[in-house]
């Protein structure tokens, strides 16, 4: 089992920044991919970003490319999502997840955090 706890969400004005953290505990997941997704009420969970715990390859949705940066600290078993130049349309609940079947779809992931709310005001 892997437990994931997100933190760092909040309310920010458009153009501002937030850094989300995803702290993992439990079994080793050195072969896993860590992903960030977001969801707004009435819509499907949307891919934001992903990376492998072992490689430096990073993947981003077009809507966040150039504004968001995913990173991880293997020693701390923590992944991060640095979000800059935030827009009102970035408002959502953000989830981190780990899995080993792919990158871009919720079904690729086995373990999920509880989510953290990000609200961007205009």
Structure description:
The chain is mainly beta and 122 residues long. The chain has strands at residues 2-7, 10-13, 18-26, 33-39, 46-52, 58-60, 68-73, 78-83, 92-99, 111-112, 116-121. A hairpin with a 5-residue loop joins strand 5 (46-52) and strand 6 (58-60). The chain is globular, with a radius of gyration of 13 Å. The termini are far apart. The model has no long low-confidence stretch (mean pLDDT 93).
Topology:
Elements: E1 2-7, E2 10-13, E3 18-26, E4 33-39, E5 46-52, E6 58-60, E7 68-73, E8 78-83, E9 92-99, E10 111-112, E11 116-121
Parallel strand pairs: 2-11
Antiparallel strand pairs: 1-3, 3-8, 4-5, 4-9, 5-6, 7-8, 9-10, 9-11
* Biggest sheet descriptor: 7 strands, mixed
N-to-C order of helices and strands: EEEEEEEEEEE
Could you tell me how far the N terminus lies from the C terminus, measured between alpha carbons in angstroms?
Answer: 40 Å
Please state the overall shape, judged from the principal axes of the Cα atoms. Answer: globular
Percent of residues in beta strands: over 45%
| Radius of gyration over all CA atoms, rounded | 13 Å
Which blocks of ≥5 consecutive residues have pLDDT under 50?
Answer: none
Q: How many beta-strand segments?
A: 11
Count of DSSP-assigned helices:
0
SS-based class: mainly beta
Q: Brief overview, please?
A:
This protein has 122 residues and is an all-beta fold. It contains no helices and eleven strands.
């Amino acid at each position: 089992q892997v437990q994931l706890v997100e933190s760092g969400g909040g309310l920010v004005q458009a153009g501002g920044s937030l850094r989300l953290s995803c702290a993992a505990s439990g079994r080793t997941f050195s072969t896993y991919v860590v992903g960030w997704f977001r969801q707004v009420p009435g819509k499907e969970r949307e891919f934001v970003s992903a990376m492998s715990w072992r490689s430096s390859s990073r993947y981003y949705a077009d809507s966040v490319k150039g504004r968001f940066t995913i990173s991880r600290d293997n020693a701390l078993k923590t992944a991060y999502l640095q979000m800059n130049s935030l827009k009102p349309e970035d408002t959502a609940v953000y989830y981190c997840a780990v899995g080993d079947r792919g990158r871009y779809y919720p079904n690729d992931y086995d373990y999920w955090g509880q989510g953290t709310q990000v609200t961007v005001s205009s």
